[in-house]
Amino acid sequence: MASNILRRTLTTSTSAKTLKIGLLPADGIGREVIPAAQRVLESLSSGPKFEFVHLDAGFEHFQKTGTALPQETIDHLKNECNGALFGAVSSPSHKVAGYSSPIVALRKHLDLYANVRPVSSVKSASTPNQKELDMLIIRENTECLYIKSERQEVDPKTGLKVAWADRKISEYASKRVGAMAFNMALTRESLRQQKPESERFWKHKPRVTIVHKSNVLSVTDGLWRETVRGVKEQNAEKYAGVDMEEQLVDSMVYRMFREPEAFDVVVAPNLYGDIISDGAAALVGSLGVVPSANVGDNFVMGEPVHGSAPDIAGKNIANPVAAIRSAALLLEHLGYTKEALQVYGAVDKVLSEATILTPDLGGKSTTSEVTEAVLKNL
Protein backbone atom coordinates (compact mmCIF):
# COMPACT_ATOMS: atom_id res chain seq x y z
CA MET A 1 0.00 0.00 0.00
CA ALA A 2 1.08 3.61 -0.36
CA SER A 3 2.85 3.52 2.97
CA ASN A 4 4.46 6.94 2.82
CA ILE A 5 1.12 8.57 2.04
CA LEU A 6 -0.57 6.72 4.88
CA ARG A 7 2.16 7.54 7.38
CA ARG A 8 2.15 11.21 6.41
CA THR A 9 -1.64 11.52 6.55
CA LEU A 10 -2.27 9.44 9.65
CA THR A 11 0.29 11.36 11.65
CA THR A 12 -1.28 14.69 10.70
CA SER A 13 -4.98 13.84 10.31
CA THR A 14 -5.92 14.95 13.82
CA SER A 15 -4.52 18.44 13.23
CA ALA A 16 -4.88 18.87 9.49
CA LYS A 17 -8.16 20.61 8.66
CA THR A 18 -7.96 20.80 4.89
CA LEU A 19 -6.96 18.53 2.02
CA LYS A 20 -6.12 20.19 -1.26
CA ILE A 21 -7.47 18.06 -4.10
CA GLY A 22 -6.70 18.68 -7.77
CA LEU A 23 -9.71 18.20 -10.06
CA LEU A 24 -9.00 17.23 -13.68
CA PRO A 25 -12.37 16.53 -15.35
CA ALA A 26 -10.63 16.46 -18.78
CA ASP A 27 -12.94 15.29 -21.59
CA GLY A 28 -16.53 14.21 -22.22
CA ILE A 29 -18.47 12.91 -19.23
CA GLY A 30 -15.48 13.59 -17.01
CA ARG A 31 -16.89 17.12 -16.74
CA GLU A 32 -20.13 15.69 -15.31
CA VAL A 33 -18.97 12.90 -13.00
CA ILE A 34 -16.05 14.68 -11.30
CA PRO A 35 -18.32 17.51 -10.03
CA ALA A 36 -20.61 14.78 -8.65
CA ALA A 37 -17.69 13.24 -6.75
CA GLN A 38 -16.71 16.69 -5.51
CA ARG A 39 -20.21 17.23 -4.09
CA VAL A 40 -20.04 13.95 -2.20
CA LEU A 41 -16.69 14.83 -0.62
CA GLU A 42 -17.99 18.25 0.36
CA SER A 43 -21.04 16.68 2.02
CA LEU A 44 -19.16 14.38 4.41
CA SER A 45 -20.07 15.14 8.00
CA SER A 46 -16.70 14.09 9.41
CA GLY A 47 -13.09 13.95 8.37
CA PRO A 48 -11.12 16.63 6.55
CA LYS A 49 -12.31 19.77 4.87
CA PHE A 50 -11.47 20.15 1.22
CA GLU A 51 -10.03 22.79 -1.01
CA PHE A 52 -10.40 22.00 -4.70
CA VAL A 53 -8.11 23.20 -7.47
CA HIS A 54 -9.48 23.01 -11.02
CA LEU A 55 -6.77 21.95 -13.47
CA ASP A 56 -6.56 21.52 -17.24
CA ALA A 57 -5.74 18.35 -19.17
CA GLY A 58 -7.17 16.27 -21.99
CA PHE A 59 -7.55 15.90 -25.73
CA GLU A 60 -10.01 18.78 -26.00
CA HIS A 61 -7.50 21.02 -24.22
CA PHE A 62 -4.87 19.80 -26.70
CA GLN A 63 -7.11 20.74 -29.62
CA LYS A 64 -7.51 24.25 -28.23
CA THR A 65 -3.94 24.90 -27.07
CA GLY A 66 -1.66 22.25 -28.58
CA THR A 67 -0.91 20.90 -25.09
CA ALA A 68 -2.65 17.89 -23.50
CA LEU A 69 -1.00 18.29 -20.11
CA PRO A 70 0.13 21.81 -19.19
CA GLN A 71 3.22 22.13 -17.04
CA GLU A 72 1.13 24.28 -14.68
CA THR A 73 -1.11 21.28 -13.98
CA ILE A 74 1.88 19.07 -13.17
CA ASP A 75 3.39 21.74 -10.90
CA HIS A 76 0.14 22.23 -8.97
CA LEU A 77 -0.23 18.49 -8.37
CA LYS A 78 3.40 18.00 -7.34
CA ASN A 79 3.79 21.05 -5.14
CA GLU A 80 0.38 21.94 -3.73
CA CYS A 81 -2.06 19.02 -3.79
CA ASN A 82 -2.56 16.14 -1.38
CA GLY A 83 -4.30 14.08 -4.06
CA ALA A 84 -6.35 14.37 -7.23
CA LEU A 85 -9.40 13.16 -9.14
CA PHE A 86 -9.13 12.59 -12.89
CA GLY A 87 -12.23 12.27 -15.09
CA ALA A 88 -11.72 10.77 -18.54
CA VAL A 89 -9.71 11.41 -21.66
CA SER A 90 -10.75 11.16 -25.32
CA SER A 91 -7.53 9.75 -26.72
CA PRO A 92 -8.00 9.21 -30.48
CA SER A 93 -7.51 5.73 -31.90
CA HIS A 94 -5.36 7.12 -34.74
CA LYS A 95 -2.05 8.94 -34.45
CA VAL A 96 -2.30 12.70 -33.89
CA ALA A 97 0.97 14.59 -34.26
CA GLY A 98 2.15 16.07 -30.98
CA TYR A 99 -0.48 14.38 -28.83
CA SER A 100 0.03 11.79 -26.10
CA SER A 101 -2.31 10.71 -23.34
CA PRO A 102 -2.21 13.04 -20.31
CA ILE A 103 -3.24 10.28 -17.90
CA VAL A 104 -0.31 8.10 -18.96
CA ALA A 105 1.99 11.11 -18.61
CA LEU A 106 0.62 11.95 -15.15
CA ARG A 107 1.27 8.42 -13.94
CA LYS A 108 4.91 8.85 -14.93
CA HIS A 109 5.37 12.43 -13.67
CA LEU A 110 3.88 11.56 -10.26
CA ASP A 111 5.34 8.02 -10.14
CA LEU A 112 1.90 6.47 -9.68
CA TYR A 113 3.20 2.98 -10.21
CA ALA A 114 0.06 0.98 -9.39
CA ASN A 115 -3.48 1.20 -10.69
CA VAL A 116 -5.77 -0.21 -8.00
CA ARG A 117 -9.19 -1.37 -9.23
CA PRO A 118 -11.69 -3.00 -6.86
CA VAL A 119 -14.56 -4.90 -8.48
CA SER A 120 -17.31 -5.85 -6.05
CA SER A 121 -20.89 -6.96 -6.45
CA VAL A 122 -24.03 -5.46 -4.93
CA LYS A 123 -27.15 -7.62 -5.08
CA SER A 124 -30.53 -6.07 -5.71
CA ALA A 125 -34.03 -7.08 -6.76
CA SER A 126 -33.12 -6.16 -10.33
CA THR A 127 -30.02 -8.40 -10.35
CA PRO A 128 -31.08 -11.63 -8.62
CA ASN A 129 -28.47 -13.67 -10.50
CA GLN A 130 -25.55 -11.42 -9.61
CA LYS A 131 -22.55 -13.50 -8.58
CA GLU A 132 -20.90 -12.55 -5.33
CA LEU A 133 -17.40 -11.25 -5.88
CA ASP A 134 -14.96 -9.02 -4.08
CA MET A 135 -11.89 -8.80 -6.30
CA LEU A 136 -9.05 -6.30 -6.33
CA ILE A 137 -7.06 -5.96 -9.55
CA ILE A 138 -3.67 -4.27 -9.21
CA ARG A 139 -2.12 -3.23 -12.50
CA GLU A 140 1.50 -2.15 -12.87
CA ASN A 141 1.14 1.38 -14.17
CA THR A 142 4.42 2.60 -15.67
CA GLU A 143 5.85 -0.04 -18.01
CA CYS A 144 4.93 -2.81 -20.47
CA LEU A 145 3.84 -1.59 -23.93
CA TYR A 146 2.66 1.67 -22.38
CA ILE A 147 6.16 3.13 -22.57
CA LYS A 148 5.00 3.95 -26.14
CA SER A 149 8.23 3.04 -27.90
CA GLU A 150 7.01 2.30 -31.43
CA ARG A 151 8.46 2.57 -34.90
CA GLN A 152 7.48 1.77 -38.45
CA GLU A 153 9.75 0.51 -41.21
CA VAL A 154 9.53 -0.83 -44.72
CA ASP A 155 10.53 -4.46 -45.18
CA PRO A 156 13.16 -4.39 -47.96
CA LYS A 157 12.14 -7.86 -49.12
CA THR A 158 8.40 -7.21 -49.52
CA GLY A 159 8.26 -3.43 -49.76
CA LEU A 160 5.46 -3.52 -47.16
CA LYS A 161 5.26 -1.67 -43.87
CA VAL A 162 6.30 -3.33 -40.61
CA ALA A 163 5.45 -1.82 -37.21
CA TRP A 164 7.38 -2.57 -34.02
CA ALA A 165 6.62 -1.91 -30.35
CA ASP A 166 9.12 -2.31 -27.52
CA ARG A 167 7.96 -3.73 -24.20
CA LYS A 168 9.63 -2.98 -20.89
CA ILE A 169 9.41 -5.11 -17.75
CA SER A 170 11.84 -4.27 -14.95
CA GLU A 171 12.63 -6.02 -11.70
CA TYR A 172 12.30 -2.68 -9.88
CA ALA A 173 8.74 -1.95 -11.06
CA SER A 174 7.61 -5.56 -10.73
CA LYS A 175 8.90 -5.83 -7.18
CA ARG A 176 7.22 -2.72 -5.83
CA VAL A 177 3.82 -3.45 -7.37
CA GLY A 178 4.13 -7.05 -6.18
CA ALA A 179 4.75 -5.80 -2.65
CA MET A 180 1.67 -3.61 -2.90
CA ALA A 181 -0.41 -6.62 -3.93
CA PHE A 182 0.67 -8.72 -0.94
CA ASN A 183 0.32 -5.79 1.48
CA MET A 184 -3.17 -5.01 0.25
CA ALA A 185 -4.15 -8.67 0.58
CA LEU A 186 -3.31 -8.39 4.28
CA THR A 187 -5.13 -5.05 4.58
CA ARG A 188 -8.25 -6.44 2.93
CA GLU A 189 -8.27 -9.39 5.29
CA SER A 190 -8.04 -7.03 8.26
CA LEU A 191 -11.02 -5.02 6.98
CA ARG A 192 -13.03 -8.19 6.31
CA GLN A 193 -12.61 -9.30 9.89
CA GLN A 194 -14.37 -6.11 10.98
CA LYS A 195 -17.50 -7.04 9.03
CA PRO A 196 -20.24 -9.48 10.07
CA GLU A 197 -19.52 -12.90 8.61
CA SER A 198 -22.70 -12.74 6.52
CA GLU A 199 -21.27 -9.74 4.64
CA ARG A 200 -17.95 -11.37 3.76
CA PHE A 201 -17.94 -12.66 0.20
CA TRP A 202 -14.41 -14.06 0.49
CA LYS A 203 -14.35 -16.98 2.93
CA HIS A 204 -10.73 -18.14 2.44
CA LYS A 205 -7.24 -17.01 3.35
CA PRO A 206 -6.18 -13.90 1.47
CA ARG A 207 -4.78 -14.82 -1.93
CA VAL A 208 -2.65 -13.11 -4.57
CA THR A 209 -2.97 -14.31 -8.17
CA ILE A 210 -0.03 -13.45 -10.44
CA VAL A 211 -1.05 -13.02 -14.09
CA HIS A 212 1.49 -13.59 -16.87
CA LYS A 213 2.17 -15.29 -20.20
CA SER A 214 5.67 -16.55 -19.49
CA ASN A 215 5.07 -19.75 -21.45
CA VAL A 216 5.37 -17.54 -24.57
CA LEU A 217 7.14 -14.38 -23.35
CA SER A 218 9.74 -16.17 -21.28
CA VAL A 219 12.08 -13.18 -20.90
CA THR A 220 9.73 -10.28 -20.08
CA ASP A 221 6.86 -12.15 -18.43
CA GLY A 222 9.40 -14.56 -17.02
CA LEU A 223 11.07 -11.70 -15.15
CA TRP A 224 7.67 -10.39 -13.99
CA ARG A 225 6.63 -13.80 -12.67
CA GLU A 226 9.91 -14.53 -10.89
CA THR A 227 10.06 -11.07 -9.30
CA VAL A 228 6.52 -11.01 -7.95
CA ARG A 229 6.87 -14.56 -6.64
CA GLY A 230 10.09 -13.45 -5.00
CA VAL A 231 8.27 -10.81 -2.97
CA LYS A 232 6.48 -13.53 -1.00
CA GLU A 233 9.38 -15.94 -0.96
CA GLN A 234 11.79 -13.31 0.38
CA ASN A 235 9.27 -12.16 3.02
CA ALA A 236 7.95 -15.57 4.00
CA GLU A 237 7.15 -14.67 7.60
CA LYS A 238 5.37 -11.40 6.78
CA TYR A 239 3.18 -12.98 4.09
CA ALA A 240 2.77 -16.41 5.65
CA GLY A 241 -0.98 -15.83 5.87
CA VAL A 242 -1.33 -15.01 2.15
CA ASP A 243 -1.74 -17.75 -0.45
CA MET A 244 -0.11 -17.30 -3.85
CA GLU A 245 -1.13 -18.70 -7.23
CA GLU A 246 -0.51 -18.03 -10.93
CA GLN A 247 -2.73 -17.72 -13.98
CA LEU A 248 -1.81 -17.42 -17.64
CA VAL A 249 -3.59 -14.33 -18.88
CA ASP A 250 -5.89 -16.15 -21.30
CA SER A 251 -6.83 -18.66 -18.61
CA MET A 252 -7.34 -15.75 -16.21
CA VAL A 253 -9.90 -14.14 -18.50
CA TYR A 254 -11.75 -17.43 -18.94
CA ARG A 255 -11.85 -18.21 -15.22
CA MET A 256 -12.73 -14.63 -14.28
CA PHE A 257 -15.95 -14.83 -16.27
CA ARG A 258 -16.73 -18.41 -15.26
CA GLU A 259 -15.91 -18.16 -11.55
CA PRO A 260 -15.04 -14.59 -10.49
CA GLU A 261 -15.59 -15.58 -6.87
CA ALA A 262 -12.31 -17.55 -7.09
CA PHE A 263 -10.17 -14.41 -7.03
CA ASP A 264 -9.12 -12.09 -4.24
CA VAL A 265 -6.16 -9.88 -5.22
CA VAL A 266 -4.97 -10.11 -8.83
CA VAL A 267 -1.68 -8.48 -9.90
CA ALA A 268 -0.76 -8.07 -13.56
CA PRO A 269 1.54 -6.17 -15.93
CA ASN A 270 0.17 -2.98 -17.43
CA LEU A 271 -1.51 -4.25 -20.61
CA TYR A 272 -2.98 -7.43 -19.10
CA GLY A 273 -4.23 -5.47 -16.09
CA ASP A 274 -5.91 -2.90 -18.31
CA ILE A 275 -7.79 -5.56 -20.27
CA ILE A 276 -8.70 -7.69 -17.25
CA SER A 277 -10.01 -4.80 -15.18
CA ASP A 278 -12.17 -3.40 -17.98
CA GLY A 279 -13.53 -6.88 -18.66
CA ALA A 280 -14.26 -7.40 -14.97
CA ALA A 281 -16.62 -4.42 -15.08
CA ALA A 282 -19.02 -6.59 -17.10
CA LEU A 283 -19.36 -8.83 -14.05
CA VAL A 284 -20.95 -6.02 -12.04
CA GLY A 285 -23.12 -4.46 -14.70
CA SER A 286 -21.23 -1.52 -16.13
CA LEU A 287 -17.97 0.37 -16.44
CA GLY A 288 -19.94 3.17 -14.82
CA VAL A 289 -19.69 1.61 -11.35
CA VAL A 290 -16.01 0.58 -11.30
CA PRO A 291 -13.50 2.94 -9.65
CA SER A 292 -9.73 3.03 -9.63
CA ALA A 293 -6.88 4.81 -7.93
CA ASN A 294 -3.45 5.55 -9.38
CA VAL A 295 -1.20 5.04 -6.39
CA GLY A 296 2.43 5.86 -5.64
CA ASP A 297 4.42 6.24 -2.46
CA ASN A 298 3.75 9.98 -2.23
CA PHE A 299 0.58 10.68 -4.19
CA VAL A 300 -2.76 9.15 -5.12
CA MET A 301 -5.19 10.06 -7.90
CA GLY A 302 -8.69 8.63 -8.14
CA GLU A 303 -9.93 7.84 -11.66
CA PRO A 304 -13.16 6.16 -12.81
CA VAL A 305 -12.43 3.25 -15.12
CA HIS A 306 -14.83 4.36 -17.86
CA GLY A 307 -13.84 6.54 -20.81
CA SER A 308 -15.07 9.94 -21.91
CA ALA A 309 -18.20 8.52 -23.64
CA PRO A 310 -18.64 11.41 -26.11
CA ASP A 311 -21.93 9.91 -27.36
CA ILE A 312 -23.64 10.71 -24.05
CA ALA A 313 -21.59 13.70 -22.92
CA GLY A 314 -23.69 16.70 -21.92
CA LYS A 315 -26.92 14.69 -21.61
CA ASN A 316 -26.89 14.29 -17.81
CA ILE A 317 -27.20 10.50 -18.07
CA ALA A 318 -23.61 9.43 -17.28
CA ASN A 319 -23.24 7.17 -14.28
CA PRO A 320 -21.43 9.07 -11.47
CA VAL A 321 -20.92 5.99 -9.28
CA ALA A 322 -17.44 5.11 -10.56
CA ALA A 323 -16.22 8.66 -9.94
CA ILE A 324 -17.82 8.77 -6.48
CA ARG A 325 -16.26 5.43 -5.56
CA SER A 326 -12.93 6.71 -6.91
CA ALA A 327 -13.22 9.64 -4.51
CA ALA A 328 -13.76 7.12 -1.71
CA LEU A 329 -10.66 5.22 -2.85
CA LEU A 330 -8.76 8.49 -2.69
CA LEU A 331 -9.90 8.97 0.91
CA GLU A 332 -9.03 5.38 1.77
CA HIS A 333 -5.47 5.67 0.47
CA LEU A 334 -5.03 8.98 2.27
CA GLY A 335 -5.89 7.27 5.55
CA TYR A 336 -9.52 8.40 5.98
CA THR A 337 -11.01 4.92 6.12
CA LYS A 338 -14.10 5.87 8.13
CA GLU A 339 -15.13 8.50 5.60
CA ALA A 340 -14.37 6.19 2.68
CA LEU A 341 -16.64 3.52 4.17
CA GLN A 342 -19.42 6.10 4.51
CA VAL A 343 -19.22 6.81 0.78
CA TYR A 344 -19.04 3.13 -0.16
CA GLY A 345 -22.05 2.40 2.03
CA ALA A 346 -24.12 5.22 0.53
CA VAL A 347 -23.37 4.04 -3.01
CA ASP A 348 -24.14 0.41 -2.16
CA LYS A 349 -27.48 1.45 -0.67
CA VAL A 350 -28.47 3.21 -3.89
CA LEU A 351 -27.39 0.26 -6.04
CA SER A 352 -29.09 -2.33 -3.83
CA GLU A 353 -32.40 -0.44 -3.84
CA ALA A 354 -32.15 -0.26 -7.67
CA THR A 355 -34.83 2.42 -8.02
CA ILE A 356 -32.53 5.27 -9.05
CA LEU A 357 -30.17 4.04 -11.75
CA THR A 358 -28.68 5.55 -14.89
CA PRO A 359 -29.37 3.97 -18.34
CA ASP A 360 -26.15 1.90 -18.36
CA LEU A 361 -27.65 -0.10 -15.48
CA GLY A 362 -31.09 -0.34 -17.06
CA GLY A 363 -32.59 2.67 -15.30
CA LYS A 364 -33.94 6.01 -16.44
CA SER A 365 -32.42 8.33 -13.85
CA THR A 366 -30.03 11.19 -14.50
CA THR A 367 -26.51 11.84 -13.28
CA SER A 368 -27.93 14.47 -10.95
CA GLU A 369 -30.61 12.17 -9.52
CA VAL A 370 -28.12 9.39 -8.74
CA THR A 371 -25.79 11.90 -7.12
CA GLU A 372 -28.63 13.24 -4.96
CA ALA A 373 -29.58 9.70 -3.93
CA VAL A 374 -26.01 9.01 -2.79
CA LEU A 375 -25.93 12.29 -0.85
CA LYS A 376 -29.18 11.38 0.95
CA ASN A 377 -27.67 8.07 2.05
CA LEU A 378 -24.42 9.50 3.42
UniProtKB/TrEMBL annotation:
The keyword tRNA-binding does not apply. The keyword DNA repair does not apply. Gene3D superfamilies: Isopropylmalate Dehydrogenase (3.40.718.10). GO terms for molecular function: homoisocitrate dehydrogenase activity; isocitrate dehydrogenase (NAD+) activity; magnesium ion binding; NAD binding. Keywords: Magnesium, Metal-binding, NAD, Oxidoreductase. One of its GO terms (cellular component) is mitochondrion. It comes from the Eukaryota. GO terms for biological process: isocitrate metabolic process; lysine biosynthetic process; tricarboxylic acid cycle. InterPro entries: IsoCit/isopropylmalate_DH_CS (IPR019818), IsoPropMal-DH-like_dom (IPR024084). Residues 20-374 form the Isopropylmalate dehydrogenase-like domain. PROSITE patterns: IDH_IMDH. Its cofactor is Mg(2+). PANTHER family: DECARBOXYLATING DEHYDROGENASES-ISOCITRATE, ISOPROPYLMALATE, TARTRATE, HOMOISOCITRATE DEHYDROGENASE, MITOCHONDRIAL. Belongs to the isocitrate and isopropylmalate dehydrogenases family. This is Isopropylmalate dehydrogenase-like domain-containing protein.
